Recover the amino acids of this structure.
């Protein structure tokens, strides 16, 4: 169907459908995610947490992952090819306890709190610009949506 709308030939690949990543075990050691628009990047996160190589574009949305030694970033097709060759000819480094901690809910919560915190000065500026009321309305709306049985209104 996509080929009809896009006017392109089929991609020379076979997509096997969804697979439980835990069932992949030791069979695969390289994960490639060329996306710069996958907002949550959960697949890259899971691959790195499983101790796999992750090959991703150097992009603002992937900045967090580049701290991990098994994350191989690339800027062009030549760097991609070099990263893929490296990953196929080497073994991923085991995660240190410090890096493994980055994959916990506690670490994610800490990152969320740091990212959402504002200073008193920023709060005063928002109040002067009339944005404090908007913030209160958004917080109320978010709270109300979470009241349902499944977190929805």
């Amino acid at each position: 169907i996509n080929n009809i709308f896009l006017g392109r030939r089929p991609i020379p690949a076979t997509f096997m459908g969804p697979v439980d990543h835990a069932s992949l075990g030791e069979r695969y050691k390289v994960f490639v995610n060329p996306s710069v628009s996958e907002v949550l990047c959960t697949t890259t996160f899971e691959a790195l947490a499983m101790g796999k190589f992750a090959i991703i574009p150097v992009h603002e949305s992937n900045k967090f992952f580049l701290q991990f030694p098994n994350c191989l970033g690339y800027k062009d097709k030549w760097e991609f090819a070099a990263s893929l060759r490296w990953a196929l000819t080497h073994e991923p480094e085991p995660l240190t306890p410090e890096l493994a901690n980055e994959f916990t809910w506690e670490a994610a919560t800490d990152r969320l709190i740091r990212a959402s915190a504002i200073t008193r000065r920023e709060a005063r500026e928002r109040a002067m610009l009339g944005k404090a009321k908007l913030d209160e309305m958004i917080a109320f709306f978010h709270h109300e949506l979470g009241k349902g049985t499944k977190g929805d209104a």
